[in-house]
Design goal:
Layout (H helix, E strand, L loop, with lengths): L54 H14 L5 H10 L2 E3 L6 E5 L5 E2 L1 H14 L5 E3 L5 E6 L1 H12 L13 E6 L14 H11 L12 E5 L14 E8 L2 E8 L12 E7 L4 H14 L2 H4 L7 H8 L1 H11 L4 H4 L32 H10 E3 L5 E6 L5 E2 L1 H14 L4 E3 L5 E7 L3 H10 L14 E2 L13 H15 L4 H4 L3 E4 L13 E10 L2 E10 L12 E2 L4 E2 L3 H15 L6 H8 L1 H7 L1 H4 L33
Parallel strand pairs: 6-7, 7-8, 16-17, 17-18
Antiparallel strand pairs: 1-2, 2-5, 3-14, 4-5, 4-13, 8-9, 9-10, 11-12, 12-15, 14-15, 18-19, 19-20, 19-21
Length: 626
């Protein structure tokens, strides 16, 4: 189904000829494989998608030393460290490392090492699964960062181009390869894409970052519609291909990616060629570099329209550069037969006994049958995406024993254990319970998603992680049994940028602030009736309400109770919102939106969630646009 949203206002489109473009810009390829210019080596080993180049760690040691020694100005060093996946935090003198997991794929050995580095380098003893399927580790001093990225490389983990104006982590459907309704496994082609564009000279300093998603089916679990570039499997006359969408994105100008081409071949490398053409055009748009807050490819597509953009791509494909490239997919494919390495049936089978209600609830919400008979995919619900060293290692042990070593992170900040034998699901659940990871409700209302917010992000306005905990607790206290209410998704971001994907939640929030009598109060602006399921992307309607942060859980409860009390039989939440209108929801929380005057009784409302000091907006310059 084609993603949909409220239509944008009609406006005159610009001609590509009117754009300020650097048509003379040199845009080279990667060079011949195996040369000094391109020393990458590709192996069909799980977790080894991004080639490791040792000299880059030496370069990081050298450049970090120059910066710390005062030889290199900060503005020059920032660009270098961002390409190595090292991102500045709001706290001084510490950084975040963003470790890329293409398609979310991770091995037991990598989980063990993640546990080790989190224990050794992260003061809060946690690693964070993001909505981009990365692992982030926060609060690391720069001298230790070089040690960390070298240590993770020993098991094939890489932070290369986890930040900066590059092709970021390539995300995907965690069920690709095991989904019942897929045409074919898209994973090998996503792997080839990763390898083709990492370290590609044209993608090292584009106007802004590029987010890519490969989905497995028309269900579009990877949510291609909100990405700069998205790929959906297609097949014509036995030939494998993809539909390519370009120009989606959330943040301050939400757009759903329109279709660039309905069918593009995979095995002949056309999808790589067309993507490079798209990125070459994007890289030459000097007018986008003037205001990097709006320098995304969606702005270009929106400005000229998809028809004109398609003409630009068609013309680009006629250029001499095409003959200079090697689009051979065979050399790049990540081709590994997971089924061949799947676990054998267990020698003994433990039978569930006693009260099975919790296990049955877990099985109903967190377990999904694979298309391969006898196997299940088990979703591990990770609260707020945070894992301790013990949990990383415990999951690694489960992966070794029960999955053949295969797992993938998800955009809901969870982990999918693949290739679990039917007979072993109960044992896996028991092991998860022992790790504190056996909760049911994956992809349900209690599976609340948020970005780090002011816990670490320079752009954060509010403590979105604190609000996440408060709402999750409220949901648990409500003891929701209604199956339709359980289907509601709640997400919150600490600023308007949308890293939690709050725009597409049934109930979404982004951080803001209020001024009351000269004092500041943390607040949130709600969105209602967004959607990302069933192959349909819908951006939620933004309400006029601005809710004090400490009252948001009350607002959520009021809206859910309103829904349960007044919906029609079988009416889902978004349909209910559309029928009664957002004004009714605003009316329901009008009293809560009235900020309290500052006094001893209301002082708590002037303190953000998980904080002890009075709230104050402290927002730095984010490095996303550097």
């Amino acid at each position: 189904m084609e993603p949909t949203a409220a239509p944008s206002r009609p406006k005159d489109k610009a001609s590509p000829d009117q754009l300020d473009q650097d048509h003379g810009k040199a845009q080279h390829g990667k060079g011949r494989l195996g040369t000094l210019d391109n020393p990458e080596v590709y192996e069909n080993v799980p977790g080894q998608l991004i080639p490791i180049i040792e000299r880059e760690f030496d370069d990081f040691d050298t450049e970090a030393g120059k910066f710390l020694g005062g030889e290199t100005p900060e503005d020059q060093f920032i660009g270098f460290r961002l390409k190595q996946g090292v991102y500045g935090q709001r706290q001084p003198d510490v950084q975040m490392c963003r470790i890329k997991l293409p398609m979310g794929g991770v091995t037991p050995e990598q989980m063990d090492v993640l546990g080790d580095v989190v224990e050794r380098y992260a003061p809060l003893r946690k690693g964070h699964v993001t909505t981009r399927q990365n692992i982030q580790i926060h609060h690391i001093p720069l001298p230790q960062m070089a040690e960390l990225i070298r240590e993770i490389s020993a098991v094939g983990l890489s932070s290369r181009e986890g930040c900066g104006n590059t092709v970021r982590n390539v995300t995907g459907d965690p069920f690709a390869g095991v989904a019942a309704d897929e045409l074919f496994d898209i994973t090998p082609y996503a792997g080839a894409y990763v390898r083709y564009f990492v370290r590609h000279p044209t993608t090292q300093l584009m106007p802004r970052k590029i987010k890519t998603a490969f989905t497995a089916t028309d269900e579009d679990v990877a949510i291609t519609g909100i990405h700069d570039i998205g790929f959906i499997p297609r097949e014509r006359d036995g030939v494998r291909g993809v539909e390519i969408r370009v120009g989606g994105g959330t943040s301050i100008m939400p757009r759903i990616a329109p279709t660039l081409y309905e069918f593009v071949e995979l095995d002949n490398g056309d999808y790589l060629k067309i993507t490079e053409a798209v990125l070459r055009i994007f890289d030459r748009q000097d007018w986008l570099r003037v205001n990097r807050a709006r320098a995304r490819i969606k702005v270009l597509v929106d400005k000229v329209g998809m028809d004109a953009f398609r003409e630009m791509v068609d013309a680009e494909l006629e250029g001499d550069w095409v003959a200079e490239r090697d689009f051979d997919v065979d050399r790049l494919l990540f081709d590994y037969d997971e089924e061949e390495h799947a676990p054998e049936p267990p020698a003994t089978v433990n039978s569930p006994n006693g009260d099975l209600s919790e296990y049955e609830r877990f099985r109903g919400s967190n377990v999904k049958a694979q298309r391969q008979a006898g196997f299940q995919a088990v979703v591990v619900k990770i609260t707020r995406g945070d894992l301790t060293p013990e949990q990383f290692r415990g999951l690694a042990a489960i992966m070794r024993e029960y999955t053949g070593g295969f797992a993938r992170t998800t955009v809901q900040q969870n982990l999918v254990l693949r290739w679990v034998r039917d007979e072993a699901v109960y044992d896996v659940w028991q092991r998860l319970v022992a790790l504190g990871l056996g909760d049911s409700g994956a992809r349900e209302i209690s599976d609340v998603v948020s970005c780090p917010g002011t816990d670490s992000c320079k752009l954060g306005i509010t403590s979105s992680m604190g609000l996440n905990a408060a709402i999750q607790q409220r949901i648990e206290d409500m003891a929701i049994a209604d199956p339709l209410t359980r289907k509601v998704h709640i997400k919150m971001s600490g600023c308007p940028n949308g890293c939690s994907q709050h725009h597409i939640a049934n109930i979404g929030f982004y951080g803001a602030s209020l001024k009351v009598g000269g004092k500041q109060m943390p607040a949130y602006i709600p969105h209602l009736a967004g959607n990302y399921e069933g192959g349909e992307v819908v951006y939620g309607a933004r309400l006029k309400s601005r809710l004090p942060a400490k009252r948001v859980p009350d607002a959520v409860e009021r809206w859910l109770r309103l829904y349960e009390a007044e919906r029609s039989d079988g009416e889902e939440f978004n349909d209910f919102v559309e029928r009664i209108g957002v004004a009714r929801f605003e009316q329901e929380v009008a009293e809560l939106a009235m900020p309290a005057e500052f006094n001893l009784e209301t002082m708590d409302q002037f303190i953000d969630w998980n904080r002890a000091e009075p709230y104050k907006v402290e927002r730095g310059e984010g490095e996303c646009a550097i």
